[in-house]
Amino acid sequence: QVQLVESGGGLVQAGGSLRLSCAASGSIFTLNAMGWYRQAPGKQREFVATITSGGTTAVADSVKGRFTISRDIAKNTVSLEMNSLKPEDTALYYCYVDYARRYWGQGTQITVSS
User: Fold this and answer.
1) How many Cβ atoms are within 10 Å of 61's Cβ, its own excluded?
2) The pLDDT value given to residue 31
3) Are 44 and 57 in contact (CB under 8 A)?
């Protein structure tokens, strides 16, 4: 089993920045991909960013150039640096990790005010 704990959510004005972090714990050897999805009220969960164990990254077009994903392999953590935030970035952000199967965090709320 893998447990994920997210931190760093909150309220920010448009144009501001936030950093999300997610720490994985449990009986872990080598995690595969880690990343983030988000879900806004009334919408489906959507992909935000991912990073492989080799460091290859991918981000959604909607956040490209504004969000940066990184990870610390030794600490089993993944982070999401979010800049130039927009009101449409408001959502519940979920961390995930692929380790035999996909595990999800509990979600952390990001609210961007205009």
Assistant:
1) 6
2) 80
3) no
